[in-house]
Amino acid sequence: MASSKREKELARMRAERQAARRAAAAARRRQRNLIIASVMGVALIALGAIILASKLGDGGTTSIDAKGKETPSATPAKTLPPGTCEYKAGKPDAARKVELPPPTGVETKQAFTAHITTNLGVIDIQLNSAVAPCTANNFRSLAHFKYFDKTPCHRLTTQGIYVLQCGDPTGKGTGGPGYTFADENLEDAKYPKGTVAMANSGPGTNGSQFFLVYKETQLDPNYTPFGTITKGLEIIDKVAAAGSAPTGDGKPKLSINILGIRIEPTKA
Questions:
Q1: β-strand partners of 126
Q2: Out of 36, 93, 160, 224, which residue is the most buried by the measure of CB atoms under 10 Å away?
Q3: pTM of the model
Q4: What residue numbers bound the domain in which 201 lies?
Q5: For residue 238, with 0-12 CB atoms within 10 Å meaning exposed, 13-18 middle and 19 or more buried, which class applies?
């Protein structure tokens, strides 16, 4: 009888120890899972920032990102006298040899229309000298020196943001004119359908790459809006409908190339 009671007591104690071990193991698993979830969360946040950054840049020289990091918040541009701009020569080397734009006597009132002839038709852009004089001056200068002639629009984005990116003679998204200049017109900047804005790789890194917004797009105000598409949006819509490779963000499947640009004062 005593032996039977002792065996039952031992069995109860073994069961309690096993239950305690199972509880401790479960607690360790919960703690480990919490740590893993925390690390995954941080990694996902970092990945999201990288993906968003690659939305609008020029990959290392100047662009809505040509596959890089999220563009940092823009810093205020240095105040210069009206009609004066600062274009800084430097690395990387120019993708196509071109002179620096004129830094003085820059137009601050007159709007200009850029007639962009592509292999798919003509796209007209009104350049807004009043709000982005240095950027409009840069675009006019590059067009004058035929920097954009026979260059591809190398990047189409159809997921998250809706833009066609152009302005790199190399077609790789890493090329620029060999100089940079400051951001403009960023306060409360929006990017509705028809917007033309500079691509970049961070504050003050504008060069030659720009993007055309063909559908309402939400972006942080880090990219200088300097013009509006007034003709030819249907051409960009056609390119967007054909998609990109890779899907969502890559080279347009329907090739669109800039053959030349003619600029004239916009008639009142």
A1: 113, 228
A2: 224
A3: 0.76
A4: 54-265
A5: middle
